[in-house]
Design goal:
The chain is an alpha+beta fold. Helices cover 50% and strands 8% of the residues. The chain contains eight helices and four strands. Strands 2-1-3-4 form a four-stranded mixed β-sheet, covered by helices on one side. A hairpin with a 2-residue loop joins strand 3 and strand 4 (61-64). Helix 1 runs antiparallel to helix 6 (160-171). The longest helix has 23 residues, at 91-113. The two termini are 33 Å apart.
């Protein structure tokens, strides 16, 4: 049975989409028209009550939240080595960085892109956005330092955490100091962008260069 990934181009589905392509497993894409708020429709909310994108269907299983989908896919296909298996060396590091990316960096982007949702006085929205950009810069600088001595963020080979990191770097492509310009992070992103699975993902979502 094929997976189904509900998506909108460039949204938080991007990392799970990369993982599906990397795995080479059967899957279908189900486009949600955000311009018409299809992700807030009753049929979609019945699957994902948060009304956010993405959602993964696997038979009777429904998984939402990007990191949860990534972990689910990696654990369903342990032969891929896209995550350290439970009980094996490296599982702790993998979980640490996967959750750091999703709990620390990803939420800060909501402040950057939707600052009006995080202030009481609308006149403070611009300051909230600028502060989020500064904080994200500090977070990516920490990642860059970590990558100074490692080829990938969570292991000595590619894992789903790297796909999540690439997605987050893309979202900062319009910063005054975009994360792609950091030396070690930029090196990793260039390597990931050269992977055929990643190239297919961008093409299927209709995303044009510059990707990050």
């Amino acid at each position: 049975m094929a997976y189904t990934l509900f998506y909108f181009p460039g949204n938080a589905n991007l990392a799970p989409h990369m993982a599906l392509e990397e795995l080479g497993v059967p899957y279908e894409l189900a486009l949600l028209d955000r311009t018409n708020a299809e992700h807030k429709s009753a049929p979609y909310l019945a699957r994902n009550p948060t009304g956010r994108i993405p959602t993964l269907l696997d038979g009777d299983e429904t998984v939402f939240e990007t990191a949860a989908i990534l972990l689910y896919l990696a654990d369903q296909h342990p032969e891929s080595r896209l995550a350290a298996a439970p009980g094996t060396p490296g599982r702790g590091r993998f979980l640490t960085w996967l959750f750091h990316l999703t709990n620390t960096i990803q939420p800060e982007y909501r402040v950057y892109y939707y600052p009006e949702q995080h202030v009481t006085d609308p006149s403070n929205a611009a300051d909230a956005k600028a502060t989020a950009e500064r904080r994200l810069g500090e977070m990516f600088a920490l990642i860059d330092r970590e990558l100074a001595g490692r080829p990938y963020i969570a292991a000595d080979h590619v894992t789903v955490a790297d796909f999540l990191l690439l997605m987050l770097v893309r979202w900062g492509r319009n910063f005054a100091h975009p994360p792609r310009d950091l030396p070690h992070l930029g090196r990793l992103c260039a390597e990931l962008l050269a992977r055929p699975a990643v190239q297919r993902t961008f093409a299927q979502e209709g995303l044009a260069a510059p990707f990050i």
